[in-house]
Specification:
The complex is a heterodimer of chains A (335) and B (258). Chain A has 335 residues and is mostly helical. Chain A is built from 15 helices and 2 strands. Chain A has one domain (67-322): Orthogonal Bundle (ABC transporter involved in vitamin B12 uptake, BtuC). Chain B has a single domain (9-220, 228-255), classed as P-loop containing nucleotide triphosphate hydrolases (Rossmann fold, 3-Layer(aba) Sandwich), CATH 3.40.50.300. In chain B, 33% of the residues lie in helices and 26% in strands. In chain B, helix 4 crosses helix 5 (153-165) and helix 5 (153-165) runs parallel beside helix 6. The two termini of chain B are 17 Å apart. The model of chain B is unreliable at 252-258 (pLDDT under 50). The A-B interface holds A 2-10, 13-14, 16-18, 198, 201-204, 206-207, 209-210, 212-214, 216-223, 227, 231, 280-281, 333 and B 55, 57, 76-78, 81, 87, 89, 92-98, 102, 106-107, 109, 111, 116-121, 131, 140-146, 149-150, 152, 155. The complex binds adenosine-5'-triphosphate and magnesium ion. The site of adenosine-5'-triphosphate has 11 residues of chain B, from strand 2 and helix 1.
Chain lengths: 335, 258
Amino acid sequence: MPQATTRGSAAELSAATTRPTLGAWLASDSAFKYTMVAVLVLGVIVMSIVSPEFRRPENLINILQQNAIIGVVACGMTLMIIAGGFDLSVGAVAAASGVLAGALSIEYGLPLAIIAGLVVGLGTGLINGFLVAKMGINPFVATLGMQAIVQGVLFIQTEAKPVFGLPDTWSDFGFYRVGFVPSTVIVFIVAAVACWALLRFTLIGKLMYAVGSNREGTRRSGVAVDRVVITAFAIGGVLAAAGGLMLVTQSNTGQPSAGATWALLAIAAVVVGGTPLTGGAGGIGQTIVGTLLLGVMSNALNIMSVSPYWQPAATGLLILLAVSVERYRHMKRSR
Amino acid sequence: MNVATAPLLRVTDLEKHYGGVIALSELDLQLMPGEHAAVVGDNGAGKSTFVRMISGAERPDGGSIMFDGAECNFRSPLEARGVGIETVYQDLSLADDLDVIDNLFMGRELFHLKLGGLSILNRKAMRKRAHELLDEVGVRIPSLSGRIRGMSGGQRQGVAIARASGWGSKLIILDEPTAALGVRETGQVEDIIRGLKQAGTGVVLVSHNLRQVFDLMDTIYVFRRGKLVGRRDVATTTPQEIVAMITGVGGAEAGEFV
Ligand SMILES: Nc1ncnc2c1ncn2[C@@H]1O[C@H](COP(=O)(O)OP(=O)(O)OP(=O)(O)O)[C@@H](O)[C@H]1O
Ligand SMILES: [Mg+2]
């Protein structure tokens, strides 16, 4: 509802303000956001009551640890979706980054390996962004093509075999904790805060919303919209690569087959939190909520010994639910 | 018209085609500073094409544009804005998901700290300036942090015009600014346009509404099939004559009128 910082004779306009119906409430963004927070909190409370196993502190920390990686990838996905795109190549890029960094770290040490891994993400992200922005290729086609190419090259180079024998420094970092907070969770927090600040305070963040909301109009306002889209994809690629590196710290291997479900999971985390797939709106807060929601759901299904094959189906169901609600809200908004 | 002053805009032999379609050809016209000029014509006459050429949204295939005494070869809308030409498009200009302030300052943000894309936005300063801008143009908006999506057509168009007029711009182009508006909202936008006349800002108004054109404008430029068929002063012409020129009916061939 508009909190009227009323000026002048704005009174005549107040007749147009929406009446507080259920539909109007659902259509407002804050309502949806808080609904998802409520669902998350409620889910955690209910599970904590019914399952002693769930409420064990070690299990709760585990949920955070296991979902920090997808959370980092989802932060990048958030920027791309807000700017009007999305990226299906994040999983393949993460795997390539992890394998390359793992292999390089054996001879050249971690710092160089990590930089090389992130450069893989930056490069593929820039190419994705170029294809979408400059060539006008649909993000679905562009990034699906990218995922096939990266995966193909990766499988040929590694003969589909994992890279073993990595320095222990990887797992030393991976299982390091500050107090009770796992290092991967700290990486997630840093990525989330950085992306949040980018969206909230910086020019490029504002322009990502603008481009996702009305690309041609923003272009006609004199904004270099192509650069905005390419930047979003580049950051998305780097964060996907970072996710791949984080995975190496958990297994101490470079897995060429890693990340197969990441694109779906990351997109799910974004839209389940309440960021519309149509771009122009949403934010990192929603993505954090979505990530945790998916994590808690998956953990709960595990504890209740539901077959792991149900996991993707449950995720898919949640995505369809979230997108349906979003469509409904969209219809409400455009009256 | 004062012959001693130089024209603000001078377009010579402007030409644009889309594939085989000649959207604009042999277009010559001049606007004086502060002139409020209507561009009228049937659907597909080339009015919007003309607007896109002088606003930098697209590049012409031939001819030249002089603005404020300088040859212009706009490669982007930004360059046109740079010399003082602002454009308000019918539907395209505002980002619905963003609030009034973010839209008003699109491409012209104020910063705490300039660092390229990482520049830190100064929303407080923009809010203050936004109040002044909207007041100057006479637009009333209940909340500056409300999203454009929730606003009426008149308010949206008000924001778009305030954005165009607040930067010392010399010429504001309005492409059918009231086409989608109700009677009262149309009245609001027309008041804003009258305000621009008092402020001395030049206007090009594309409109199908002759009542509006005769109420608000100084001169009328009639387009037909990609060509300018004539220019009239509002004071000395009639709606009947303009309609005849638009439709080409009643012996109104191009040569007779130019
Ligand atoms: N992007 C484009 N691609 C192809 N043809 C175009 C394009 N834009 C305009 N045209 C054609 O150029 C001609 C002039 O179109 P324009 O949009 O300038 O007309 P208009 O006078 O603005 O009409 P209306 O009153 O309907 O807005 C038309 O024949 C139109 O079909
Ligand atoms: Mg038109």
